[in-house]
Amino acid sequence: MSSYYFIFVRQTYYEHNMIKERQQAGVPSRLNHHTTFEGLKGILSEVDSKGICFRAVSNRYKNDDQEIRMGEYMLKHIRENISFESSLNHFDGYNESASISFIEGESPKKMADDYGRFRIELDLRNHVRLGLNTFGFIDCEYVSKEDLKAYTIEYTSKYKECIERLESSSKKDIDGIIEMINIINDLKYKVYALKESKWAEENEWRIIIPLKETDPDTLWTESKPSKPYKNFHLPKECLLAVTVFSKDESIGTSERQEVEQYLREKNCYIPIKLVIIRDK
């Protein structure tokens, strides 16, 4: 798997806070990935050779299928209400893709509880190339279930207006074509990016890559049920630090030293930090 990824740039021109003129946010100087100690060893096992290795697991096997339903709801509604040949008609959404998740900023306490007490910190800004459509690096958008229907109706209306204007025009409407492309691309983006507003504090970013279960380079996890994934490598230079979160200072200190020794054996010398989680 290639060691680079892309930023997908999008712009829309609508009224609501979620659907407004905006551009893909710039990549933050630090993004974090929480995992267990075994997960950390797997991710950093090749740091002295191939670099950092993440498993990009198929989106069909995500833990929270509500994330899938939100973006797919918008796409399904458009397809059912608009008869127009476009790339949306051939877009498979989650079915043929995989993702890796990161969070921006400080870690909410539940991240350590839910995903693991070992935080890998990375600077990914210098390892980005521009790409097309939805395969790439995206920042998630957050919306309530109540607002999702209103946003979907607005998208449908704007898309219809754009199509009708193009069909009635006697000459090429360049602005209309650009607007329609923006709508289509943003809809694809939202299939991967939408999350419920209750998760907004996570400030999640995702790397999205294509994955077909029949591809020769698709691998399968040993766990049951087995899940398809691809290895995704990033260069060693991305790695900034590792932070260990622990409720017990003695245990945490021992774990920090264990991580430090593991990385030294791989000729990787980065800060290994310890944060004690205090119960309120």
Radius of gyration: 21 Å
Number of helices: 6
Distance between the termini: 44 Å
Succession of helices and strands:
EEHEHEHEEEEHHEEEEEHE
What oligomeric state is this? single chain
How many strands in all?
Answer: 14
Keywords for this entry:
elongated, two-stranded parallel ribbon, 14 strands, alpha+beta, single chain, 6 helices, ten-stranded mixed sheet
Please provide a written account of the structure.
The chain is α+β, with helices and mostly antiparallel strands. It has six helices and 14 strands. The protein has helices spanning 37-43, 65-81, 109-115, 145-168, 174-193, 249-264, and strands at 5-7, 31-35, 52-58, 97-104, 118-122, 128-130, 136-139, 141-143, 194-196, 204-210, 219-220, 228-234, 239-246, 272-276. Strands 2, 3, 4, 5, 7, 10, 11, 12, 13 and 14 form a ten-stranded mixed beta sheet that branches. Strands 1-6 form a two-stranded parallel ribbon. A hairpin with a 7-residue loop joins strand 11 (219-220) and strand 12 (228-234). Helix 2 (65-81) packs parallel to helix 4 (145-168), helix 2 runs antiparallel to helix 5 (174-193) and helix 4 packs antiparallel against helix 5.
State the gist of this model.
This protein is α+β, with helices and mostly antiparallel strands and 280 residues long. It has helices at residues 37-43, 65-81, 109-115, 145-168, 174-193, 249-264, and strands at residues 5-7, 31-35, 52-58, 97-104, 118-122, 128-130, 136-139, 141-143, 194-196, 204-210, 219-220, 228-234, 239-246, 272-276. Strands 2, 3, 4, 5, 7, 10, 11, 12, 13 and 14 form a 10-stranded mixed beta sheet that branches. Strands 1-6 form a two-stranded parallel ribbon.
